[in-house]
Structures are given as structure tokens and as C-alpha cells.
Amino acid sequence: MQKKNVALVTGASSGIGLVTAQALVRAGYRVFGTSRKPVASSPGVTMLICDVTDEASVRALIEEIMKQAGQIDLVVNNAGIGLLGAAEESSIDQVQRLFDVNVFGVARVVNAVLPIMRKQKSGRIINMSSILGFIPSPFNAFYASTKHAIEGYSESLDHEVRSFGIRVLLVEPGVTRTSFEENLTRADQLLPVYAIDRVRSENLMRKWIEAGDAPQVVADTVVRAATARKPKLRYSAGKQSSQVRSVRRFMPERLVDSIMRKFNEFPA
């Protein structure tokens, strides 16, 4: 019997991560998922504890997967948190915590698996980006910054490791129906001057999420990126993501700016 490819999905306890792990099981992978606290394993998914902000925790995770499976063929870096508030309303400590999960957490996992993939002379790393990796988002400035960082990191890294048989890819979801909004971190030094716009922005986000794509749309895109014989660097997950990328790429900057203000209900 042919040995299954082994996949790791971080942040797999719920939402996009959980659905992605399940989709990879159906695609024939042996799947390991991570969570920060103990959770029940989904059928076919072995859940392990990992805090991506702790290098020792990440290395222990990779060692355990190698002990159990002997290889790692695919990594999906999905673990992440949000931060809602005006840029001025977050302390630098709070922003550093956000980057520690969303950017440096990805780098810790990547650094731990690259030696294994180089030895195997194969591997695929999929980093979960967002449409906020290439457009602005008022009252999500620092979250958008982390996704912009992931875009630049991933594209650069892909060139560095491609000669070792490793590819680094980006999946860019649009707004997705998950509990993301409920689990957002709020800015830690709120200012009255931003209150009206902040509340409006949060209400808009809630409305967009209710009308967003199902997590399965993202999961199916991950599977497509994971199994493509000749993978692309970027995969838009869903119609909205494709449309927004086209707007950003082909429309004049002034028109994009006008559209963004209208979409976020700011005065022209």
C-alpha cells in the first residue's frame, strides 16, 4: 500500500483550519492539526498542542510528527488572530503580539520544517494570506499589515527554496463565514475620536462575514494548491477574492481609493 503524504495544519481546532484539515483527509493525506489547548480530534485528524509564539513548542510539534509519521510533505500555516481598532488605538505591545502570531509564528513553523523538506528534496508550504494582504482595511491596519508581510515573506522565500524541490504558496481568502469576528482582539487604548467610525467598521465587518464564503471554499482552494502538479504562487479563494485582486491590479490607484472609501462608508 502506498504511503500517504503527511500534512500539518496549524490553527485547526475550528473554522477554516478545521475544514481544511478535513478536506486534506478526504484528499488522501495523513493530517496533523494544532491547537493551543486540548481539543477533540476530528475523524482522520490527529490534533497536537502547539503555541506558534513559542519556538520550543513548535520544535516539539515537528519532532512529534516526525516520530509518528517520519515525514512532512505539506504545511498549511493557518493559525492567526485579528485586531480591530484604529491604528492609533493599539499599543506597540499589542501589535507585537499580533505579529508574533501572524508573522513570526509562520516563520517559526517554516524554519522548523525546512531542514526536513530539504532532506526529502520535496515539500509544499501554504501560507494563509487574505485579500487584506493586498488591499487596505480601515480599523484593521495592523492585521492587514501582517498579511501584507506574509505576502512579501512567502514570495521571497519561494525563490530561495525552489531549487530544493520545495514550493511556498499563498492562499488568499475573501471574507469568510467563521467566528473570526467574535474572536477578534480589540484595541487596548480606545480613543473617543474614533468611536463612531470604529463602531461602523465593526458593524460592516459583521455584515460582510454573514454574507461571506463558506470555509469550504478556502479549504477546497488549499487542496487545489497542495495537489497542483505545477503550482501557482497565489490562489484566490472564492469569487470575491478574485474580483478584489483584479480591481487592485488593473484599476487606477485613485479609483481604487475611491472604491475603498465608498465600500467602508467613509465620505468621498
UniProtKB/TrEMBL annotation:
Keywords annotated in UniProt: Oxidoreductase
Chain ranges passing through the membrane: none
Family: Belongs to the short-chain dehydrogenases/reductases (SDR) family.
GO molecular function: oxidoreductase activity
Ketoreductase domain mapped to chain residues: 5-174
Pfam family, one: adh_short
Protein name: Oxidoreductase
Entry superkingdom: Bacteria
InterPro entries: KR_dom, NAD(P)-bd_dom_sf, SDR_fam, SDR_oxidoreductase
Species: Pseudolysobacter antarcticus
SUPFAM superfamilies: NAD(P)-binding Rossmann-fold domains (SSF51735)
